[in-house]
Amino acid sequence: MPVTVLLVDDEPLVRTGLRAVLAAQSDIEVVGEAADGAAVIPLVRQLRPDVVAMDVRMPLMDGIEATRAVLRTVVDPPKILVVTTFENDEYVYEALRAGADGFLLKRARPTEIVHAVRLVAEGESLLFPAAVRQLAADYGTTKARAALDRAALTEREAGVLRLMAQGLSNAEIAAQLVVGVETVKSHVRAVLAKLGARDRTQAVIAAYESGFVAPR
């Protein structure tokens, strides 16, 4: 089955460009478009997309509020891929903290756009650009550090979280640790559970905010 995508951006030209890139792939299908975050929830419920490619800045409801609304009200919500112009935009960071699963620049090459959609659909978040990693570190708090200490990750779980923060997929982590992919998946599930994180993105944000992983 193809990965189904809903495009949400207030610029028609951006939506047209994304549709052209994604529609050219045999394993991706664009099932709908919206010009504002306010239209996302009814479309998600109607179309049941696997991925929502969501602009951050929109006039009525921005991508941050739309992300929160989808995750709060939709049963089995889609993956949300934040699409924006500026990589050091604090709106992007807030969208990721709100629960978005990945990050993509509008100026990305077609191959990068396709890769991002596929990766997010598979449940493995994208590597944050350096500017967003620095924002996460700047937002660090004593509370975040205490929460990670309470999680009491094992040495292997801590190592897996560091590799997740580098943007490695389960298969890449398995290759680096010389273990099976299923073993890595088990460690990832344990890390998410101990951190109380919804997904990999939230776990990585916790790693940067706590200072467990330093931006570089």
TrEMBL record:
Keyword hit for Transcription: yes
Domain Response regulatory: 4-121
PROSITE patterns on file: HTH_LUXR_1 (PS00622), HTH_LUXR_2 (PS50043), RESPONSE_REGULATORY (PS50110)
Annotated transmembrane regions: none
Positions where 4-aspartylphosphate occurs in the chain: D55
SMART domains cross-referenced by the UniProt entry: HTH_LUXR (SM00421), REC (SM00448)
InterPro entries on file: CheY-like_superfamily, NreC/VraR/RcsB-like_REC, Sig_transdc_resp-reg_C-effctor, Sig_transdc_resp-reg_receiver, Tscrpt_reg_LuxR_C, WalR-like
Coiled coil spans: none
Keywords: DNA-binding, Phosphoprotein, Transcription, Transcription regulation
Superkingdom classification of source: Bacteria
Span of domain HTH luxR-type: 146-211
Keyword rRNA-binding: no
PANTHER family in the cross-refs: TRANSCRIPTIONAL REGULATORY PROTEIN NARL-RELATED (PTHR43214:SF24), TWO-COMPONENT RESPONSE REGULATOR (PTHR43214)
Name used for this protein in its record: Response regulator
Species, as recorded: Streptomyces argenteolus
Lineage, top ranks: Bacteria, Bacillati, Actinomycetota, Actinomycetes, Kitasatosporales
